[in-house]
Amino acid sequence: MMNGAQYVESLKKLKPRIFYRGVRLDDPYGHPALAPHVRTAAATYDLAAGGQHDEIMTATSNLDGAKISRFTHLFWSVDDLIRKIAMLRLIGRETGTCFQRCVGLDAINALWSVTYDVDKAKGTEYHRRFRTFLARLQREDLMSAGAMTDPKGDRSLAPWQQADPDLYVHIVLRRPDGVVIRGAKTHITGAANSHEIFVMPTLGLPPEGADYAVACAVPIDAPGLSLVFGRQSNDERKEEAGTIDCGTEWGVVGGESTLIFEDVFVPNERVFMAGEGEFAGSLVDRFSAWHRANYGGCKAGNADVLLGATALLAEIHGTIKNSIVRDKLTEIVHLVETNFAGAIGSSALGKRLPAGNWLVDPLLANTVKQNVTRFVYQVGRLTHDIAGGLLSTLPSDADFQSSEVGGLLEKYFAGKEGFSTVDKRKLCRYIEGMTSVSTLVEALHGAGSPQAQRIVMLRQADLPEKTRQAKKVIGLGKDRK
Ligand SMILES: Cc1cc2nc3c(=O)[nH]c(=O)nc-3n(C[C@H](O)[C@H](O)[C@H](O)COP(=O)(O)OP(=O)(O)OC[C@H]3O[C@@H](n4cnc5c(N)ncnc54)[C@H](O)[C@@H]3O)c2cc1C
Q1: 456 C-alpha vs ligand 1 centroid, how far in Å?
Q2: Topology of 282-464 in CATH?
Q3: 3-class state of residue 289 by DSSP
C-alpha cells in the first residue's frame, strides 16, 4: 500500500490534460486550486498505511489474500459494509471535508457485480477482464474516480434523441481491439487527482440506446481526455494558503471536474460493458444504493468537526452554557446521528449478490440520502445561527495584520478571555467553508437529486404488499354489504 507521500509521487508520473480558469495546468497537483484536494486524498493513504486504523482502513483482498486499502476492497460481508461506513466517518472527522474516494470504491463494487450478471446471461467476458483490472488496482493501490453523470442536455429527451448525440457518453466506433468513446461526464469528484476513471452509464437503456451502455476504465492521462476543474464557493481563498481566510488546508468539497472524451480509445481489457443496456439500470441502482448510504458516514465525520467548531465558537461568544444554545447543539447531534444510524442500518441489512459481494438495503440507503439532502442544510442553519453574522462579514486576515487597524480589530473582535481572535476567526472560516453553497449542493445533488431517492423509496416500499397487510390487519372485505 502507498502512503500519502508515495501517492503524491505517483501522481507526478502522470501527464493529464487539466484546465482551470482558461489555462492548461503544467503542474496541476501543485496548483493552489488542486493542491488541497491532493492533500486530502493523501491523508486517506496515510490513514491506511499508518497502521493505527488497520481494522477500518485496510482489508484482506478476496482476489489474492493480500492486505489492501479498504478503498480498493469488495464488500464481502455485512461486516465490510459496516466497516466502510466507519471508515468514512473516521476520515470525515480526520480531514473535516470530502475526501473523494468513496465514488471509485462503489464503482468497483457495482462493476464487479454487474459484469458477473452480464457474463452469466450473455456469455461475455467482462467479469474476467474486470477481475484482472481490479487485481492491478489493489496491487498498485490506485485511486479511482467514478464518472456516471452525463451533461444530459434536454432532460425530457433520451440520450439518442438529443439534438447533439454526444450529451451522453457513447460508443462511436467498435474495433476488434476495443471501443472509441465520445461525450462528457460532469461534476466528477476527485477525478483530477485520480489514477483511473471508471466511466459508467447514468441510466437504464433500451436496445435503441445500446451505444450509450458503456462502462470502462480510462487512465487519467489517456489521449483525447481533457479535464476542466470546476469553481467552488470561496475557491480563491485557496490562493491565500497560510492565512486564516483560506479556511481549511483541505479545500471545500471534493475538487470536481468535467471530463471531456474526444474519441478516446479504450482497449478491450478495460471495457466492462459495451451495449448491454438492459444491465445499465442495475449498475446505476446498485452503485447509487452503496453511494447514498455513504453520506450517513462521511457527513457525520464532517459534522463531528463542525459541531466541535460551533461549540467552541459558542464558548468564545460566552453562550455555551445557555440552555437554548445547548438545545441547538443537541439538534445537530440528533440530525447527524440519525443519518449515521441509517447508514449503519442499511449496511446491517445488506444482502449477498450473485457475484458474491454484498449490497446495502436499498430502501434504507435511499432514505439516508434523502435525509442528508435536508439535514445537512438544517445543520448548516443551526451553525450559522449560533455563530452569528461574523460568518458573513468578518474582515480579512490582512486587515487583522494591518499596522493601522489591526490592533483595533483585535480589540473589537475579542471574545471570552483566554481565547485569541485568531482562534475565533479560524473557527468562523471553517464553518463558513463547510456550510457554503458548494458543500450544501453536494449534499443535495451528490449521489443523485432528492427525487432520484424518492423514486427508489416508493418502489422499494412495496405499496401492494402494504395494502394487502392493511386489509388483513383491519379486516377489510369481510363485512356484509
Ligand atoms: C459536489 C458534487 C459532486 C458530485 N460527484 C459526482 C461524481 O463523483 N460522479 C458522478 O458521476 N456524479 C457526481 N455528481 C453528480 C450528481 O450525481 C448529479 O449532480 C445528480 O445526479 C443530479 O444531476 P444534475 O446535476 O445533472 O441535475 P439534474 O438531473 O438536472 O437535476 C436538477 C433538477 O431537475 C430534476 N429533473 C431532472 N431530470 C428531470 C426530468 N426528466 N423531469 C423532471 N425533473 C427532472 C431533478 O429532480 C432536480 O430537481 C456530483 C454532484 C455534485 C454537486
Answers
A1: 15
A2: Butyryl-CoA Dehydrogenase, subunit A; domain 3 (1.20.140)
A3: helix
